[in-house]
Amino acid sequence: MVNLVIKIVSGGQTGADRAGLDAALWHQFPHGGWCPKGRKAEDGAIGGQYQLTETPSTSYLQRTEWNVRDSDGTIVFTFAEDITGGSLRTLAFAKKHQKPCLHISRSIYQPEVLIQKFIAEHSIKVLNIAGSRESKEVGIHHWVKRLLNDALFWSESHPGMFGGPGEG
User: Fold this and answer.
1) Rounded distance, CA 9 to CA 113, Å?
2) Which of 7, 56, 58, 114 is the 20 to 30 Å CA partner of 108?
3) Are 7 and 125 in contact (CB under 8 A)?
């Protein structure tokens, strides 16, 4: 798959959000997004290594809506099949702003393939990553980072495969 995504954005919260940013950082890939004023997250201030812009408000909902609004599409990651809380609000904002949104839960078969199809079908260039906090679903950061690595950066992670860097 030719990777259409040119930037990954998220709100910087622990868990799924930060996994998106960490995957981008690991691959030296453009990233950004909106975060609450004061760079607020459940584990304290969001680190400066993340290229996030603060909203005028400390509200998590404002940054959630602005990231949905300003991206081409959103993927919401949860372990659970049922979406609740902030993840549910993310889906509502996607509907409000008429933006494509995909929910990936741990029960999905081959989620990497669904991610790639979603990006291709909707021509996603700026991809918003959202979902559960680490405190709500322990281990989600690692899971999401691995999925994004496999879905978006597979050829880069495996030189010589699929026309990726290092092919000679």
Assistant:
1) 20
2) 7
3) yes
Compute the distance between CA of residue 68 and CA of residue 95 in angstroms, rounded to an integer.
10
Q: Which residues contact 47 (CB under 8 A, 6 or more apart)?
A: none
Q: Thinking of the domain 7-157, which architecture would CATH place it in?
A: 3-Layer(aba) Sandwich (3.40)
CA-CA distances (angstroms) from residue 152 to 7, 119, 134?
11, 10, 22
Going by C-beta distance under 8 Å and a sequence separation of 6 or more, which residues neighbour residue 126? Answer: 5, 6, 7, 9, 70, 71, 72
What size, in residues, is the chain?
Answer: 168
Task: Show the tokens assigned to 28.
Answer: 């030296």
Q: Check if the beta carbon of residue 81 is closer than 8 Å to that of residue 107.
A: yes
- Read off the pLDDT of residues 2-60 as tens digits, 9 standing for 90 and up: 468 999 999 999 999 999 999 999 999 999 999 999 999 999 999 999 999 999 999 99
- For the record, the structure tokens of 31 come out as 């990233």
Q: What is the pTM of this model?
A: 0.91
